Amino acid sequence: MQISAQLQGILDRALERKAPMRDEMVQLLRYSEQSLEAGIIRAVANRITRERSRNLAILSGQIGYATAPCAGDCAFCVFGAGHSTFPEVNMSVEEVAEHAKAFTSRGVLTTLWLMSMHQFDFARFLEIVAAVRAVVPEYVIVSSNVGDLTLEQAKELKAAGLAGAYHTIRLREGLDTKLDRNERIQTVRNIQEAGLHWGFCCEPIGPEHTPEELADQILFGMSLRPQSFGAMRRVWLPNSPIADRGQITQVRLAQVVAVVTFATLADPNIVAIGAHEPNLICLMSGANSACAECGANPRDETVETSKNLGLSVDNCVRMVYEAGFDGVVRPDRQVVPFSSPTNR
Ligand code: SF4
């Protein structure tokens, strides 16, 4: 068996914790997902994450608490106003708090995201954040996944109990979405300045995204200094205006996850590498993070995603156990080991 000296060099340097250059990332992404090279790339990324994470996984959960036809009009999202047939959903504060309690009851979650649309009722969101903060364990990072935030709003949310935020600048933002890339970047700055934990994800990946585009997006994400990183594929939706572009496989997503893993070597503080939807291939290719979901989900036409695409916390525990992780680590540094059968 032989791989090129150039690939060998990139992988050897990655094993020495040195991130690849842009052109090297492009090369890694150019290999066919079924090639021997792609398999080796994923295996090396898996090895790196196992070492960096001490073979521990990180679990999170998301509650999609409110939906409406969304002005962001993202072509890949079930809520995009131009094509959405998704009914409006508005969970009560009590319902959200109940879901939050259920998600955190096993004591394995690191982060709990509260998701709504680009335009959302800020006062109501403050109320929800406070209610969730009151019922979840102290170590859980209560996080937002909502529209753009001013610095003042980010600080207000922090005072109400928010500790993190997911806000990404998407592939082809402004082309496949009606959102302003610069406003999204400004929100990231506001989140960081308010002192909230912030993570980036290379998303939503489809077959049309070239190796160059993916490498640039990953490096752009790194330039914003995230504290966690992930990759997500676009899920094929029949109503989407870009349905004809299709969907990548979990194997291709895993190859991107592997390259994300290498790129994050530039920042040793990043230990959580996510993949959406979580799957075993990605968890064997550099990902160590999985997310449970309930309520509405931008990638799922089913109103209650836990009945379709969304994994339960138990599903996530089982998946990371099957992927060979020794346990789950929480933000308070507590490790929940899988040595006991009741924790699997
Ligand atoms: S991805 Fe977010 S901003 Fe875009 S349409 Fe969906 S809910 Fe709106």
How is the topology of this model organized?
Blueprint: H1 5-15, H2 22-30, H3 36-52, E1 56-64, E2 66-67, E3 89-90, H4 93-104, E4 109-115, H5 122-135, E5 141-145, H6 151-160, E6 164-166, H7 181-193, E7 197-205, H8 211-223, E8 228-233, H9 250-263, E9 273-276, H10 280-283, E10 289-295, H11 313-322, E11 327-329, E12 335-337
Parallel strand pairs: 1-4, 1-10, 1-11, 4-5, 5-6, 6-7, 7-8, 8-9
Antiparallel strand pairs: 2-3, 11-12
Helix pairs in contact: 1-3, 2-8, 3-9, 4-5, 5-6, 6-7, 8-9
The chain binds iron/sulfur cluster.
Iron/sulfur cluster (SF4) is lined by residues 70, 72-74, 77, 79-80, 117-118, 177, 298.
What structural keywords apply?
single chain; 344 residues; alpha/beta; TIM Barrel; ten-stranded mixed sheet; two-stranded antiparallel ribbon; 12 strands; globular; binds iron/sulfur cluster
Description:
The protein is an alpha/beta fold and 344 residues long. The chain has one domain: TIM Barrel (Alpha-Beta Barrel). The chain is 37% helix and 17% strand. It is built from eleven helices and twelve strands. The protein has helices spanning 5-15, 22-30, 36-52, 93-104, 122-135, 151-160, 181-193, 211-223, 250-263, 280-283, 313-322, and strands at 56-64, 66-67, 89-90, 109-115, 141-145, 164-166, 197-205, 228-233, 273-276, 289-295, 327-329, 335-337. The strands form two sheets. Strands 1, 4, 5, 6, 7, 8, 9, 10, 11 and 12 form a ten-stranded mixed beta sheet that branches. It has a two-stranded antiparallel ribbon with strand order 2-3. Helix 4 (93-104) packs parallel to helix 5 (122-135). It is globular. The model has no long low-confidence stretch (mean pLDDT 96). The structure holds iron/sulfur cluster. Residues 70, 72-74, 77, 79-80, 117-118, 177, 298 line the site of iron/sulfur cluster. Iron/sulfur cluster binds next to loops.
